[in-house]
UniProtKB/TrEMBL annotation:
<dbReference type="InterPro" id="IPR015421">
    <property type="entry name" value="PyrdxlP-dep_Trfase_major"/>
</dbReference>
<dbReference type="GO" id="GO:0016846">
    <property type="term" value="F:carbon-sulfur lyase activity"/>
</dbReference>
<feature type="domain" description="Aminotransferase class V">
    <location>
        <begin position="88"/>
        <end position="278"/>
    </location>
</feature>
<dbReference type="InterPro" id="IPR000192">
    <property type="entry name" value="Aminotrans_V_dom"/>
</dbReference>
<dbReference type="GO" id="GO:0019450">
    <property type="term" value="P:L-cysteine catabolic process to pyruvate"/>
</dbReference>
<protein>
    <recommendedName>
        <fullName>Aminotransferase class V domain-containing protein</fullName>
    </recommendedName>
</protein>
<dbReference type="GO" id="GO:0080146">
    <property type="term" value="F:L-cysteine desulfhydrase activity"/>
</dbReference>
<keyword id="KW-0663">Pyridoxal phosphate</keyword>
<feature type="region of interest" description="Disordered">
    <location>
        <begin position="1"/>
        <end position="30"/>
    </location>
</feature>
<feature type="compositionally biased region" description="Basic and acidic residues">
    <location>
        <begin position="1"/>
        <end position="18"/>
    </location>
</feature>
<dbReference type="InterPro" id="IPR015424">
    <property type="entry name" value="PyrdxlP-dep_Trfase"/>
</dbReference>
<dbReference type="Pfam" id="PF00266">
    <property type="entry name" value="Aminotran_5"/>
</dbReference>
Amino acid sequence: MEPANDDDHRANGSDHSHLAKKPKLSTRSSSLITDSEIREEFAHHQTGIARINNGSFGSCPASIIAAQKRWQLRFLQQPDDFFLNHLQKRILHSRTIIKDVINAEHVDEVSLVDNATTAAAIVLQHVGWAFAEGRFKKGDAVVMLHCAFQAVKKSIEAYVTRAGGSVIVVHLPFPLRSEEEIVAEFRKALAKGKANGKKVRLAIIDHITSMPCVVIPVRDLVKICREEGVERVFVDAAHAIGSVPVDVKEIGADFYVSNLHKWFFCPPSVAFLYCRKSPVSPDLHHPVVSHEYGNGLAIESAWIGTRDYSSQLVIPEVLEFINRFEGGIEGIRLRNHKAVIEMGQMLANAWGTSLGCPPDMSPGMAMVGLPVNLKILSDKDALNLRNHLRDHFAVEVPIHYEEIKELQDGDGYVTGYARISHQVYNKVDDYIKLKDAILQLVRDGVTCKMLHSE
């Protein structure tokens, strides 16, 4: 835990001579983690709860919580020394690890921020300034998926539309049967954005949509953006790292963000924002302005005033934890994907439904159709069912309502889906608990309308 000697406290740029060798991203050592050790790492989880919602907030192992507390104490013991002599060097080390994990060209392309919401604000603030300052014409477009995260939609409202930009929404069908359906709708949206001589200034593409959960063919869509003259591409990959392969060079976007506290075992909250080196890079700034303003986004982000930076500092310990598993991050990813598809198909068979998209379009999460007898006919119904499962069956799982536009009601059609996750701490019993809870509600003749009065 003892940091090495530091150079200038602001040297978190290009001098890497003091850093360790490139970190291992996988391992096949004889000291692989055991099942009992996994249970110990997550023993702090509330007992008796079928926790099949890793996607929302992630999960932090006990050893990483302990490491975080050590870093917090290091700061509190002697904050001046820690700030002046250690903090920036340790953040640089964490950034360098992420650079290697995502295959970025240079560490200067990697900033650590609180979460994907902060990263969206950074990118959309930059785009908003371009509209406000006349570099982009009024009415030029930002293209986004209709299922983009709500915080991204709000950032577009706050920074882009108020500055004169327009928004083109890509409406994706669900359930999905193929990637081609996504590509076709995306091309239509780009054509609409370019109509009447306008330009698409930014495309926002989810790598994994949240609700409903689908892996988007992000490389194909970025390539299409380049072919169609889209100026900048921002990939919102909040769920990606640790859940799908991430190679930012291969993806080719200008901006790419992923949370590290969802599927990469970090404590809340930390994310990386990759900004490909380009002429626009110096004009990106953290929305919280502190005394590092103007020194580049990565350095600005590494000091936004006195706060707890420990979630950024534990990244080396997190990598050590990941490498205790056979195959490292890729081994964990593959096992989670295999397990969530098996559990999703088990649930669908029991409920007489199906998965919301093909297995290869599911990450460590899967959308499983719920029985039509529950009559999930609104977002409120979905929320009420979720609360009922938590309060009465000790099952934590998000519920999604999918409107069937051509029908007045959902009779005979699946309109509700459970978004199940699988992480290393999950057991088959968690999914059996969900299966039995839903079957009991169906046997008892319960509909979501009955849950409104609770």
